[in-house]
Design brief:
It is a single chain. By secondary structure, the chain is an alpha+beta fold. The chain has one domain: ph1033 like domains (ph1033 like fold, Roll), CATH 3.10.590. Strands 1, 2, 3, 4, 5, 6, 7, 8 and 9 form a nine-stranded mixed beta sheet that branches.
Length: about 150
Amino acid sequence: MTYWINTVSRGHVLRGVAGGFTQANHGKPHMLRRMARGDWIIFYSPKTDYPDGAPLQAFTAIGQVTDDEVYQVDMDPQFQPWRRGVEFLQCLETPIRPLLDDLDFVEDKSRWGYRFRAGVFAIDEHDFNVIKDAMTGLVLTGEQHRAGT
């Protein structure tokens, strides 16, 4: 099992939650093909919308891959993105800043946002559990609210 972070605007994350899917890297298939049924994905949203949304810097959804292969959707002739099926957990939108000191994948705390430029990347089980515990209500702050509300 692999634990992934997918960097996606909140607006796009919410469309994926509603449809039970994820896309990555502007609809490209290569990172999705590395995922397997049972892998976990945490979604980090730097902005509320792409490309011109307000800054958000929060984890916005968490889910588990439910299929065995990528599939392509014909949205229009110019955009036919690849997707994976995901079952999403009920969770809380969780700001990243209170978690930074506990996340091992953030090696340079002064440049913590750099890692997310990759779009999709794997994390270890410890980091997954830190974020999952915060998102599922085990660690709450006054800034958190239910994702999608």
